[in-house]
Amino acid sequence: MSAVETSTLVYRPFTTDDIAAAHALSVEAKWPHRADDWRFVLDAGAGFIAQDGGRVVGTALFWKYGDGGGSLGMVIVAPDCQGKGIGRKLMELLLDALGERITMLHATPAGEPLYARLGFERIGAIHQHQSADFTVPRIDLAQGERLREIEPRDTATLIALASRASGFDRSALLPALLDVARGVVLERDGDVLGFALIREFGRGHAIGPVVSVTHDGQHARRAQALIAHWLAHNEDRFTRIDTPDESGLSAWLGDIGLKRVDTVVKMARNGTPPHDPSVVQFAIVNQALG
User: Helices 19-28 and 35-44 meet at what angle, rounded to 10?
Assistant: First the structure.
């Protein structure tokens, strides 16, 4: 799109030159994102800027997954510019870009009414857990199971598992994550039953996604083993995990010292992401990408 002017405001595409200003805006909003976190999500998608007299006063990004899915996030309006319709205009630009795709977002209580008016419906919740003061739990592997580092030959399998668990095509996002993250798989007899990634994010590190198959009913234990592996490697370091409410993992995370500090509402428009119940996502990538 070309620049669109509304009064003294200009709405235009988000470029890499805007990362520093967007990062400053997120710091003002007390978000933990580093400039590199902004760079990663922008490289994975696209978005828009609201600018007033050369000052960036609003941001919004979106991501497309395959032919039918999408998500949006990083929607911020400068505190002194709120109440002027900037957030709504940015949302309208995002929704025009995403069209009829099944679109997911995570909403704060303050943002939920606006999203509901734009056609989003509540479909779940995400619990944010974090701490540097946690206990590394001992989770025994079942006979024949082992953890190993992710190898290039695993990529196609991990894309398939991540796509089935999230309900979105991860064929572009997962390889991008593997470029910036470390990862392990849990396998048995050569079959990958789950995996977990860890990467630098915000105040420290984030674990996610964490995915496990459900066919034998041991998926929660496997997810705990995958998470425990990375906690052992990250002991005494700030670690964050965002877990879907339906995974049932939140209480366990709290028990080991990863405190729940926030809960956001998961919302969707144009339908619900088609999750495969035989694979569960125990931790998301982040609240923007799901």
Answer: 120
The reported pLDDT for the residue numbered 109 is: 84
Q: How many CB atoms lie within 10 A of CB 232?
A: 11
**What local confidence, expressed as pLDDT, does residue 110 receive?**
80
With 0.90 as the threshold, say if the pTM is over it. Answer: yes
Yes or no: say if 57 and 84 are a contact pair by the CB < 8 Å rule: no
| DSSP code string of 212-229 | EE-TTS-HHHHHHHHHHH
Residue found by looking up tokens 């669109």 in the block:
4
Amino acid at 215: H
Q: How many Å separate Cα 276 from the centre of its chain?
A: 18
pLDDT over 70 (residue 206): yes
CA atoms within 13 A on the CB side of 254: 9
Map out the domains of the chain with their CATH numbers: 4-100 (3.40.630.30), 129-283 (3.40.630.30)
Q: Could you tell me which residues come within 8 angstroms of residue 25 by beta carbon, excluding any fewer than 6 positions away?
A: 56, 57, 58, 59, 76, 78
